[in-house]
Write a structure and sequence with these properties.
This protein is α/β, with parallel strands linked by helices and about 450 residues long. Helices cover about 30% and strands about 25% of the residues. It has 15 helices and 22 strands. It has helices at about 1-10, 25-30, 65-70, 80-90, 100-115, 185-195, 210-220, 270-285, 290-295, 325-340, 355, 360-370, 385-390, 405-415, 430-440, and strands spanning about 15-20, 35-40, 55, 75-80, 90-95, 120-125, 135, 140-145, 150-155, 155-160, 170, 205-210, 225-230, 240, 250-255, 255-265, 305-310, 315-320, 345-350, 375, 395-400, 420-425. The chain has a 10-stranded mixed beta sheet, sandwiched between helices. A 6-stranded mixed beta sheet has the order 17-18-22-19-20-21, with helices on both faces. The protein has a two-stranded parallel ribbon with strand order 1-2. Helix 6 (about 185-195) links the parallel strand 11 and strand 12. Helix 5 (about 100-115) crosses helix 8, helix 5 (about 100-115) crosses helix 9 (about 290-295) and helix 6 (about 185-195) crosses helix 7 (about 210-220). It is globular and about 55 Å long.
Length: about 450
């Protein structure tokens, strides 16, 4: 929604917005754009007499501003619908969907198109390092959008991405998530099927050929061109031949022949898959693979995706958005491969709706097993027994219900050479800054 606000501002509208606990980098971006933010969801916000209210999916019946909006008969729409009507109409939309990696892959794709001189517009759920904002209208035909399967609004329960009408649909992966709205994987697959139903026959569906859940989606119906990609295997489409243990170098192979070579600064097997998908999608828009490879060499990542927030007394503190067991495991693995011989301390806030429901509880122990130590923040209202779920975890575990205490104890336990990986899809109560500050004053363990 912050990106939608940025696009509306760029289009010449006066834009205001409301939320609770807005945190960087989005809060910083909105302030820089001159977008007025109001705390909370009070009915008094309607005194501004807006021409249209764009309703995010965090809003629900019973919130004062929503009840007042409905009573007053004011004009309202959803973020995805506003985008479809005012931004995406007439554009070549490249939509990036999947359980993991949407933000990073969308950022890669937008950067590749920019590098190739195509001046794309984009809307991304984070702030790409190669751009100064998460959204822009762009000056060309192409528009890259992070295509989320979460529902649209309290009055529209379709997945967001069905509003986007992509010509290029990139499907990274598909696993169970969003347990608050989907009962099982089959329900999510049905939404992906609905997305494929609106890709035109001249369009292209690009998908991870190693993902069985995606294969089942394509088996439900396909009316467009299709192309696959996969890591470490020779398939019908593009594949990646890994040349370095930390995934910093890989070759792009098609038909047994090397098409391009990528040397870059990212880590993790999952990011190689993200890059492959972005390269195939960019090729559909006319960018040759060698050009895409050169662009990726200059890709600087995304804020809050394995972002080094600081280093104090030899302890490096990383910020990562991982909040699903698969993403948690791959983030830990990537950091360990890049830093052989150093300890990895994993710190997790189970903040997403699915995590707070305990749906992934038993899978977390496996996902976190690659860390040398595990620190879990478990507030009193978490709703499930965190310690019991971690029963099979071999790594040392600490569970705390206070972020300030967590920062103090973590700073005391960390030693020179440690990599502290803080994972949350929220601000984590400012833990990163609190830890860095404490590291400068904490007594070191003997």
């Amino acid at each position: 929604m912050g990106g939608v606000a940025a696009l509306a501002k760029a289009a010449g509208h006066r834009v205001t917005g409301s939320d609770r606990n807005v945190y960087p980098p989005m809060s910083t971006q909105l302030r820089a754009l001159g977008i007025e933010l109001m705390e909370g969801f009070g009915a008094d916000q309607l005194s501004l007499r807006p021409d249209v209210i764009v309703v995010g999916n965090v809003m629900s019946r019973g919130m004062p501003v929503i009840e007042a909006m409905l009573d007053a008969g004011q004009r309202y729409t959803s973020g995805p619908q506003w985008l479809a009507e005012h931004v995406l109409a007439g554009r070549w939309v490249l939509a990036v969907a999947g359980t993991h990696g949407k933000t990073t892959t969308s950022s890669m794709l937008a950067h590749i198109l920019e590098y190739a001189g195509l001046a794309p517009g984009f809307l991304i759920g984070g702030v790409p390092g190669n751009f100064d904002s998460s959204a822009r209208l762009g000056g060309g035909t192409f528009f890259v959008i992070e295509a989320d399967e979460y529902d649209t609004a309290f009055f529209d329960k379709r997945a967001k991405f069905v509003h986007y009408s992509p010509r290029t649909a990139l499907l990274n992966n598909l696993e169970f998530d969003h347990a608050d709205i989907y009962p099982d994987v089959a329900a999510i697959q049905r939404q992906f099927h609905h997305l494929l139903r609106i890709v035109p026959p001249s369009g292209r569906v690009i998908w991870n050929g190693a993902d069985r859940n995606l294969a089942a989606v394509l088996g439900m119906g396909l009316w467009s061109q299709a192309e696959t990609f996969m890591v470490g295997e020779d398939g019908d489409g593009l594949s990646a031949r890994l040349c370095g243990e930390d995934y910093s170098v890989f070759e792009v192979v098609a038909g047994g022949a090397v098409q391009a070579r990528v040397e870059w600064q990212l880590m993790g097997r999952h990011n190689v898959a993200n890059a492959l998908g972005a390269m195939v999608a960019a090729r559909h828009a006319g960018v040759p693979l060698p050009v895409a490879a050169r662009a990726l060499a200059e890709f600087s990542g995304v804020k809050r995706r394995m972002q080094l927030r600081g280093s104090v007394r030899g302890v490096e503190v990383y910020d990562d958005f991982a909040h699903h067991p698969t993403a948690i495991a791959t983030s830990i693995d990537g950091l360990r491969r890049r830093n052989r011989g150093e300890r990895v301390l994993a710190v997790l806030e189970p903040r997403s709706n699915t995590m707070r429901m305990g749906v992934h509880g038993t899978a977390l122990a496996t996902a976190l097993s690659g860390a040398d130590e595990v620190w879990l923040y478990a507030p009193a209202d978490i709703g499930w027994d965190v310690r019991a779920a971690m029963g099979t975890l071999a790594s040392p575990l600490k569970v705390l219900d206070n972020i300030d205490v967590l920062a103090v104890q973590l700073a005391t336990a960390a030693r020179a050479g440690d990599r502290v990986l803080i994972m949350s899809n929220g601000g984590f109560g400012g833990l990163h800054e609190k830890l860095l500050a404490r590291l400068g004053t904490a007594e070191r363990p003997s």
